[in-house]
Amino acid sequence: MKQQIPLNEIEGGVTAAQGFVTGGLYCGIRKAKKDLGIIYSETPASVAGVFTLNKTQAAPILVCKSQLKKSHICSAVVVNSGNANACTGERGLNDAWTMVKATAKALNIPDEQVMVSSTGVIGQYLPIEKITTGIEELAGKLSRTGNGDAAEAIMTTDTFPKQVAVKFTLGHSVVTVGGMAKGSGMIAPNMATMLAFVTTDVAIGQPLLQKALALANNRSFNRITVDGDMSTNDMALIMANGKAQNTAFTEDSEEFKLFCAALEYVMIKLAKMIARDGEGATKLIEVVVKGAHSEDEAAKAASAVANSNLVKTAIHGADANWGRILAAVGYSGIDFNPDDVEISFNELPVLKRNYEIVLDEEKAKHALSQENIVVIINLNLGNQSARFWTCDLTKEYVHINASYRS
Questions:
Q1: Could you tell me the pLDDT band of residue 126, with boundaries at 50, 70 and 90?
Q2: 348, 296, 286: which is closest to 320 by C-alpha?
Q3: Where would I find the H helices in 191-253?
Q4: Catalytic residue list contains 193
Q5: Domain 8-275 class?
Q6: Domain 284-402 has what CATH class?
Q7: Which of the four, 27, 69, 209, 230, has the lowest number of CB atoms within 10 Å?
């Protein structure tokens, strides 16, 4: 986040902003856990979205893209877990539209103001009757305190719900940005197996909202990886209902920069939670590449390191194998001089220029035994940098994914 602003973290997630209610319940998709959530804005909101780049896209992705073409206004998002409604053909598409229509009817809003999202197992049909019954029930239970249930309802293999919200001053108004997300495995850059929903009471036009979301997404959800796999259902949506009644602002204004900084903060917090909750993970790893010619080259190098299974397994074993890191930078495709690279773990230098090894094995093992690890790679080329977040790769990851459908 380039712009530094005073942010006050608060409780509430997607209901922290004015005018939003939510909730979650069990409707029968999963064996016993909550599996259906709704976010509702009491005032129609501007909406923007970013979606998976996977060519195989789930029915909800197709529906949301269609909805955005019809209208840039949204009042509700309905989400189910336990079933991705992906690779389900015409029936799956019809089921997604049925979820839209059922939510619109239950909340007495136009169909085009409903977005739909699903996550879970690919290639299975939704139990649509159970879902529509659940939607009708849940619509009457939405509240400002329902954010915990909603965050739980969108989880799959997640081990904890992911929520964050911040309050800050924008011009003469106090405004809020809040969000929730799910994601644990099948996580790769260019979005992950993740869903994220952000709400704000800021008054902002849809084109600016889309631009802000895209910018923040590029430095948050596009900078995390667990296993290099890209999902069929990834999406991040933001709703802005204008309840804060702030003065309108333009793209070149200070207010837009402040809003972008707050949005980026919220989305990075959620992204880091996803990386930390990588299936079977025991450590959150932040890869920082600095001294690059450009942010894009720094990001490419950081991505290569964060996606390296050899790096991730070494860190799991607290093995300071800096050679694997340098090798990953080497195949990242950027132009650099390996002789100039410096590497450190949690500010402990292990490699200096001209391959000078300053590794203290005992101290390095201690550094890599922590739950939060920062790998810093200095290319010594320029003044640009980028960050990626990942986790260690463990035996438990194999166990979880070997029995995902059971």
A1: very high
A2: 348
A3: 206-218
A4: yes
A5: alpha beta
A6: alpha beta
A7: 69
